Amino acid sequence: MLSRLQPLARAFSTSSPSGVSVAVCGASGGIGQPLSLLLKLNPAVTKLSLYDVGHTLGVAADLSHIQTRARVTGYVGPDQLEECLQGADIVLVPAGVARNHGTMKMNDLFNANCAIVATIAAAAAKVCPDAMMAIITNPVNSTVPIACEVYKKAGVFDPKRIFGVTTLDAVRANTFIGQIKGVDPLDVECPVVGGHAGPDIIPLVSQCEPKVELDQETLDALTERIQEAGTEVVKAKAGAGSATISMAYAAARFTDSLIKGMRGEEVVECAYVASDLLPEVKYLATPLVLGPGGAERNLGLGEMTQFEQDLLKVSLKDLNTSIEKGERYVKEHWA
């Protein structure tokens, strides 16, 4: 049975006597539910703790009937947040308000989601400071700096263990390139760097494996589609929501890569992390080598074309503004 399910996240980590404990904060939401399902199907996960402000017990009960070894427990409300995080190896944060109409920008989510991320980060810094924290809550360009600043205030900040999950950008790039070239998207790997909002998303098509050749018109259209793919979904859902199923898949893929890295395999994934690669910004999405300590090595930007360099240059001002906004929130509103 499980072997048939493995292609869902392309070879989930193999089963091991020493399983992984994963906490999902925001488990009853549009991303949280399918993400929790995919985690339940991962044989490496033996403990799955689900937290949300409502409906978590029903989600946990439903998932617990699936015949995999992960033990599922639901936690409801702020009073149970720390209990949910006890013993977690990985903390996933899809909690928050989603984009709900075509004109809504990533930064419009800031006021709604900043306090949620800060609260979860503070609890994790207290209860499981050595856990890997993967933040899905938008705007990731700001919410990751918020979490990092909260960890700094708690005196437990480790830049190798806090990630902004930008995997969906790479998943979309791989899918769209596969469609253009008529190949299986699972055989395509295109790094995506920068940030996680519109023009901050920079697909490095020149570094794609296998190598692809595109004329400039096709490259322009592909780049724009990758950058605006979130809006494409929001519009298709006619204001009823944003990307949830594909985001859950991407987060499950990233989690599986974290698990493999924690177990000593050398795995490369792009993610948005604290970075000193560029003097203009303190955070940047780049390919990372994942290992037992988290982001063991930053592979950087590699050799970029002039087109890609120009895209990155344009994105840096807005990216830096988002970073400063997150840092300022913690300074002004978080004791």
Keywords:
L-2-Hydroxyisocaproate Dehydrogenase, Chain A, domain 2, globular, alpha/beta, 3-stranded antiparallel beta sheet, 335 residues
How does this model look, in words?
With 335 residues, the chain is an alpha/beta fold. It has a single domain (18-335), classed as Lactate dehydrogenase/glycoside hydrolase, family 4, C-terminal (L-2-Hydroxyisocaproate Dehydrogenase, Chain A, domain 2, Alpha-Beta Complex), CATH 3.90.110. It is 42% helix and 18% strand. The chain is built from 11 helices and 11 strands. The protein has helices at residues 2-5, 32-40, 56-64, 81-85, 110-127, 140-154, 167-181, 216-227, 229-236, 245-262, 306-333; strands at residues 20-25, 45-52, 71-76, 90-93, 132-135, 162-164, 192-194, 201-203, 267-274, 283-291, 294-298. The strands form 3 sheets. The protein has a 6-stranded parallel sheet with strand order 3-2-1-4-5-6, with helices on both faces. A 3-stranded antiparallel sheet has the order 9-10-11. Strands 7-8 form a two-stranded antiparallel ribbon. Strand 7 (192-194) and strand 8 form a beta hairpin. Helix 5 (110-127) runs parallel beside helix 6 (140-154) and helix 7 (167-181) runs antiparallel to helix 8 (216-227). The radius of gyration is 19 Å and the shape is globular. The termini are far apart. The model is unreliable at 1-11 (pLDDT under 50).
